Amino acid sequence: MNDDPLALLPELFMLGGAVLGLLTGMFLPRHRQPIVAWICGLALTGGLAAGAFAAARPGGTAFESYVLDPLTHVTRATVMLATLLVVVLASGWARGRRRETEAYVLLLLSALGAVILAGTGDLLVFVAAYLLASIPAYALTGFAKDAPGTEAALKYYLMGAFLGVPMLAGVTLLYGLTGSTTYAALGERLAGVPGAAVACALVALLAGVLFKIGGVPAHFWVPDVAEGAPAAVAAFVTTVPKVGAFVALFRMAGEFFAASAADWRLLLALIATATMTLGNLAAFFQDNVRRLLAYSTISQAGYLLLPVVAAGRGDLAAPALLFYLGAYAVTNVGAFAVVVATGRDSLGGYTGLARRSPGLAASLAVCLFGFIGTPPTAVFVGKLLAFAAAWDAGQAWLAVVAAANTVASVFYYLRWIVPVFRPGDPGNPGNPGNLERPGDPEGSGDPGRPHRAAGPGDPGRPGGSAAGGVSRGAAWVAHVAAAASVLLGVASGLVLARGW
Amino acid sequence: MLSAVIFLPLAAAAGVLLLPRLGGRAATRVWIAAAAADLLLVAVMWVRYEGGIGYETRMRWIPSVGAGYHVGVDGMSLPLIAMTALLFLVCAIYSLRETPRARAYAALFLSLQTVCLGLFAALDLLLFFVFFDLSIVGMYFVIAGWGHGDRLRSALKFFLYTFLGSLALLLGFIGLYLGSDPRTFDMVDLTHAPPFGDAPGTAGLVLLAVGVGLAVKTPTVPFHTWLPPAHTDAPAAGSAVLAGVLLKMGTYGFARIAMPMLPGAWQRHAWVFVVAGVAGVLYGALVALAQNDLKRLIAYTSVNHMGYVVLALGAAGLVAGDARARELAVSGAVTQMVSHGLVTGALFLLTGVLWDRARSYGLGGFGGIAATAPIFTGLTAVAAFASLGLPGLSGFIAEFQIFAGVIGIGTPGAVVAGALSVTGVLITAALLLRMLHRAYLGRPGELTPRVTDVRPEELAAVAPLLLLSLIIGIAPRWLLDMIEPASAAVVSLVGR
């Protein structure tokens, strides 16, 4: 038995950072509040270092409910790195706001919840972590106190509460059936329990998990939150809690779903199919890039379910899930960072971005091609591993469905990429592209698509910088994320070699 | 050395993009210099090549899934690499004339060159796939950024269609990986110990996935519908690279991956490929005959020419027949890949000249060009004759070997297939002569006065391609000496 508090050092760093940040923020004048961002950043960096140190030591279980294994280690690293990027992303938006401190602290607390979701081996801790990951996120969504934010927060909260109740019922049912809430004990005892009761309990439990990962049919909050919340917060809630919830689901699937008689693999495979298909179809004609990204995260959640379906079969599933999660996190944060940096929400607003800020356009292209799964970006390796894991687990049809969905997804990602590289001034919606440019003998009329009015993002909305301008910190995050996506893909061998 | 050849253009692309204040013409000059240096390195490689897998580099990349950075050349890939390097160089020379956004254009083509060279050199399935996929992205930007007409639509169709193929290919590769023991993506290892020896059903499905993926790229009838719009709306150099290099990725994949790694399945389903090949030959030729748009016409002759290659490779799987004949067919297929790259590249660059002058590809608007542009007409005539397989030019060497090989296999089906595809040559001859008749001879058309003769850089771009085609046509031994051992190896591998 291991009751060493130091085993939880990375989590303690996050908690300590949040508490210290809150206390410091209470005593700081408003113009000194950015210090809290530094405190949170340092806490995350410390947590990363502690996590790296912990990963090198032998694993085991701490406090009988917290598992120290590669799943936890990688989740810690992914969540903390993604949160660090989001803190940088949020600092531009939060600066000078009345509750600047609270924004950083809530981010850190929600991230802590995501880590614990993934690390725990006990359903009761899982429920607590679910709440810890959710409640700060509700508050962050409505942080700007504007109409879209409030609506999104309400929707998010109601969905979370509504789906949290069946989850609690599922936990209760499982406890009633087996007399325990730890995954390990459930794994031993579920085999001897009536199948119908187990199936009910698992479905009820899945409701809450699906809410966190944004899977069909619990996905309705994703587009509204992505559109209504401040963009930096949208980047956070579509990335970090998902990472934790996916690892939690994978852990549950491997530890006690597999022991039950219920055909959970088929259920999850069907959910995966529905999630990726619906996400893709809904993304097709979105003109708001945030909603487009939201539906894209839903479809990515569908692909991410592939290794979960394969949990416990073959040795590809765990590396596939973890690598894909890391790849997804950097890519998604990178894409949202571009949205924050440009401050534009409509697809038309991206016309000619390559001319105005080539670096940002390149980062966006890398992230979007990354989502498609173009090599050598990280998501390509993730998809490859996920497809292979599903096939290896005897679900080749699911890999075929996912491949077909990937082709469909190309369409809407290209809808965003094309205007970026089209010359034209977004200030004059009538002008771009259709006029003959000087020095262009090829004649560049493109009757392919009508041009949408290309105003700068919604003016009254926080989260965007001044129209036409580019926020420095956000642009930096976008570049880092895009570079990380390519590096992670090219150096995937090094990453994967550790632990497997 | 091989890695230097592959990544030199990419380094040059980075240089072109990062050097501040590099003008458009200077960027094109850097591009020409890099492409020329690369071709020189390839020539050195050719001279010092000693058989087997040459210039091999094998490094670990993703060891946990058995994928590595493994490159090398043999008698099948080296001719294609040389053809690729030459074609990119002439595209660079051709682009010396005014090109909009020349820096980005040069960087894009240089990166595309790295991708194409890397694909032909790859000896690892994952590496092959990386380059295969990136070629789609690169060509998408070429068409969408520098094309004309309905370019966005064509580019999107090209991307979606070929990406569908590439994902089918990826599934096939995953299948090969999961079927191998120990699991690996390495082509050499997979060729040594082909997977699914005892599971013919699974092998058939994997071949289906790989086959569909490569057939879309080739393109084989009925997966060819992306090709005409993509060619028509691409810029001339883009069309030349698309037809000359990218299409070969499909047929090269058949010979490099599908045949040696799934020999049993290939033998069992060889007839599918023979039929698809014959269908491509006849359908491509007949549809080309009906075209009034010059570029679409040449695009359909590509379908026809790739049909010969698929036919020959399919026939190589008919193990009941004579082994020597099958080797001849595969040699012909590889020669055809090289020859088609040179000749069709030249034809597309020449149509680019027409578009440059008259902004039209319509055969109806032209006539009597020979009077206003004699050199241009001469070049087009040589290219057209090479394309229809006139003796003395490279097309004849290739097609003769294919027909002799396929018919020489001796089974009744192979003889019928060979005989049917010979009629394809007749139709091609008819349609190319019709093209020459309508556009270049006879009365002047309304657009003819606009057609001035070729400029020096255009001549410098097209002439080397046709000259090489002539050399191969007259003295093919140096090329065949390179190809024949490789095709013998493929035939013995597929006969297992």
UniProtKB/TrEMBL annotation, chain B:
Its main location: membrane. It comes from the Bacteria. Residues 122-420 form the NADH:quinone oxidoreductase/Mrp antiporter transmembrane domain. InterPro entries: NADH_Q_OxRdtase_chainM/4, NADH_UbQ_OxRdtase, ND/Mrp_TM. It is found in: Endomembrane system; Membrane. It is a multi-pass membrane protein. Coiled coil: none annotated. Keywords: Membrane, Transmembrane, Transmembrane helix. GO terms for molecular function: NADH dehydrogenase (ubiquinone) activity; NADH dehydrogenase activity; ubiquinone binding. One of its GO terms (biological process) is ATP synthesis coupled electron transport. GO terms for cellular component: endomembrane system; membrane. The chain crosses the membrane at residues 6-23, 30-49, 76-96, 103-120, 126-146, 158-179, 199-216, 237-258, 270-290, 297-321, 333-355, 367-390, 402-433, 459-479. Belongs to the complex I subunit 4 family. NCBIfam families: NDH_I_M. This is Oxidoreductase. It comes from Streptosporangium minutum.
